[in-house]
UniProtKB/TrEMBL annotation:
NCBIfam families the UniProt entry points to: HDIG, tRNA_CCA_actino
Keyword tRNA processing on entry: yes
InterPro entries with a match to the protein in the record: Bact_CCA-adding_enz_type3_sf (IPR050264), HD/PDEase_dom (IPR003607), HD_domain (IPR006674), HDIG_dom (IPR006675), NT_sf (IPR043519), PolA_pol_head_dom (IPR002646), PolyA_RNA-bd (IPR032828), tRNA_adenylyltransferase (IPR014065)
GO molecular function: CCA tRNA nucleotidyltransferase activity; metal ion binding; nucleotide binding; tRNA binding
Cofactor: Mg(2+)
Protein name: CCA-adding enzyme
Domain HD/PDEase: 279-417
Length: 494
C-alpha cells in the first residue's frame, strides 16, 4: 500500500471563535432541552403574570459546557413573595431556608432543585461579606454584581419554551478562552466579598480555567481580606476545590497568590528550601503528585477524606526536618507531628470531628508500611496494621500506593510488589479470622466472673491485655484465654 504524500493528508482547520461559540450554544440548547418539562411550564407561569424569568449563573455555564447538574438557578423581576405565589401548587416542594430575606425562593420539581432570586443590585459594607440587599429592576444590573463573567451569562425562558441567550458582559468569550475574570474591577469585587478570591481558585480546580492576570494580581494584593470570611465558608470552598477535577492547579493558585498562607498555611510551608549540601525531595511537589495518584485510584465520586490525607500526609516534615552529617536529611516522626497538625488545622476550619479524625489517622498510619521490608512482618504485625486501619484500611491502601513517587522504575516496581504481598497476607489472614473486628476472646462479663471483679478500671485493663494478646497470637480457645488471663492477673495484672 502506498502511503499518501504529506500534501494529500487533510489537516483539520481550527474552528474560529465564532464557530466555537455557535457550537457551544447549540450544545447548551440541547442540554436545556432535556429540562423542558421544568423550564417550559415555569416560563409560561411567569410570562402569564407579566414577569421575566432567566436561567442564570453556574447553571448556564454548566449547560454550555455540557455538565449541567440537578441544581437550577433563576433570576426574575418578580419579588420573592410574588414568586412564592406563582409556583405554589406547581412545585413539588416549596421552602424557606433563610434565603427569602435575600430574595431567594427555594423549590423542587421532578427531581430538580430550583432557586429563584429576584434581580438584585446589592451594596456591601466591606467589613463582612453580607450585602445590604437591594432589589433591582434589570438583568444587566443583576449580572454585573456576580463573581466572574463566566457565571454572568443568562438564558431567558420564554412563554412557549423558547430560549434566548443573554450575555451583556461577554462571559462566553471568557469561557471560550478558559479565563476567569470579574465583571467589574477585581479589587471592587473582592472588597465586596473576599470569598470570591477563594472561589476563583475553586473554579480553577473545577473547570480547569486560568485566572485573568488582573484577577491574580488583585488576589495576591488583597489576600489578607479573606480573614473577613468565617471558617465554615472557607471550609466549604476548600472542599469544593479539593473535590474538583484539577485540584492541584487550584492549590497552586492558592499558594502563588498567598491565599493558602491565610487559610491553609501548612501546605505552602512544604516548599522547603533545597541546598546543595542537603538534598531532599521537594515535599510540596511530592504531595501534589501523591494527591494526583490517589485520585487516579478513586472509583465514583471524589473521596474527600482520601484527597485531604494525600495532600496533608507530609505536613509534619517542615517542623521535623534535620540536616544530618554527610548531607542527608531526616524527618523523624513526621507522621506523628503531621497527624497533630491535621487535627489543629481542621478544627480551626470547623471540620466535623469524625472527618478530622479519619484524615489524621491516615496521616499517622501512612508510614507504617515502610517497616514491612521484604515481608518480615509477623502475623501479629499484619493484624495490628489491619486493626489500626480499621474501616479506613481501603483508603490506607490507596494512600500508601499513591505515596510512591520515585522516578526509579525498578524501585517503584519493588514497592508495588511488596505492597501486593502485604495485601495477599491480609487476605489470607482474613480468611482464617475476622480481622475487621478483632476482639478479646473473653468479654467483660466473663472477665469479671473469672477474676471476681466488679465493674471498674481493672476490668478495662484486663480487656486491653486480652486484646493485645489476641493481636499477638491470633484466635484462642476460651480455655487458653482464661489460662493466660489468670496468669497475667496473678503476676500483678499490669
Amino acid at each position: 500500500m502506498v502511503s499518501p504524500k504529506s500534501e494529500d493528508v487533510a489537516v483539520p482547520v481550527p474552528l474560529s471563535p465564532e464557530d466555537r461559540r455557535t457550537r457551544l450554544l447549540a450544545s447548551a440548547a440541547i442540554t436545556l432541552g432535556r429540562v423542558s418539562d421544568v423550564l417550559t411550564p415555569l416560563g409560561e407561569i411567569f410570562a402569564a403574570h407579566g414577569h421575566q424569568l432567566y436561567l442564570v449563573g453556574g447553571s448556564v455555564r454548566d449547560a454550555v459546557l455540557g455538565r449541567l447538574g440537578t441544581d437550577l438557578d433563576f433570576t426574575t423581576d418578580a419579588r420573592p413573595e410574588i414568586v412564592q405565589q406563582l409556583i405554589r401548587g406547581w412545585a413539588d416542594n416549596l421552602w424557606d431556608t433563610g434565603g427569602l430575606a435575600f430574595g431567594t425562593v427555594s423549590a423542587s420539581k421532578s427531581g430538580w432543585q430550583l432557586e429563584i432570586t429576584t434581580f438584585r443590585s446589592d451594596s456591601y459594607d466591606r467589613v463582612s461579606r453580607n450585602p445590604e440587599v437591594t432589589f433591582g429592576d434589570t438583568l444587566e444590573a443583576d449580572l454585573i454584581r456576580r463573581d466572574f463573567t463566566v457565571n454572568a451569562m443568562a438564558v431567558r425562558i420564554g412563554a412557549d419554551g423558547a430560549l434566548e441567550f443573554a450575555d451583556p458582559l461577554d462571559g462566553m468569550s471568557a469561557l471560550l478562552a478558559g479565563v476567569l475574570d470579574t465583571p467589574a474591577a477585581p479589587e471592587d469585587s473582592f472588597n465586596d466579598d473576599p470569598l470570591r478570591m477563594l472561589r476563583g481558585a475553586r473554579f480553577v480546580s473545577q473547570l480547569g480555567f486560568e485566572l485573568a492576570p488582573r484577577v491574580r494580581v488583585a488576589i495576591a494584593t488583597m489576600a489578607d481580606e479573606i480573614g473577613r470570611i468565617t471558617a465554615e465558608r472557607v471550609r466549604t470552598e476548600l472542599d469544593k476545590l479539593i473535590g474538583g477535577e484539577y485540584p492541584t492547579e487550584g492549590i497552586d493558585i492558592m499558594c502563588e497568590t498567598g491565599l493558602a498562607e491565610r487559610v491553609l498555611p501548612e501546605v505552602p510551608a512544604m516548599k522547603l528550601e533545597i541546598d546543595e549540601h542537603h538534598q531532599h525531595k521537594d515535599v510540596y511537589e511530592h504531595s501534589l503528585t501523591v494527591l494526583r495518584q490517589a485520585i487516579d485510584q478513586e472509583q465514583g465520586d471524589p473521596d474527600l477524606v482520601l484527597r485531604w490525607a494525600a495532600l496533608l500526609h507530609d505536613i509534619g516534615k517542615p517542623p521535623t526536618k534535620r540536616n544530618e552529617p554527610g548531607g542527608g536529611v531526616s524527618f523523624h516522626h513526621h507522621e506523628v507531628v503531621g497527624a497533630k497538625m491535621v487535627r489543629k488545622r481542621m478544627r480551626a476550619l470547623k471540620y466535623p470531628k469524625q472527618f478530622t479524625e479519619d484524615v489524621a489517622r491516615l496521616v499517622y498510619l501512612h508510614l507504617r508500611f515502610h517497616g514491612y521490608g521484604k515481608g518480615q512482618w509477623t502475623d501479629s504485625a499484619v493484624r495490628r496494621y489491619v486493626t489500626d486501619g480499621a474501616e479506613l484500611l481501603p483508603r490506607l491502601h490507596k494512600l500508601v500506593r499513591a505515596d510512591c513517587t520515585t522516578r526509579n522504575k525498578r524501585r517503584a516496581a519493588a514497592l508495588r510488589a511488596t505492597y501486593d504481598d502485604l495485601e495477599v497476607r491480609i487476605e489470607r489472614l482474613q480468611e482464617q479470622e475476622d480481622l475487621a473486628r478483632v476482639r478479646p476472646d473473653l468479654d467483660g462479663n466473663a472477665i469479671m466472673e473469672l477474676l471476681g471483679l466488679e465493674p471498674g478500671p481493672q476490668v478495662g485493663r484486663a480487656w486491653k491485655y486480652l486484646k493485645e494478646l489476641r493481636l499477638d497470637r491470633g484466635p484462642m480457645t476460651r480455655e487458653e484465654a482464661e489460662a493466660a488471663l489468670t496468669q497475667w492477673w496473678r503476676a500483678g495484672g499490669q
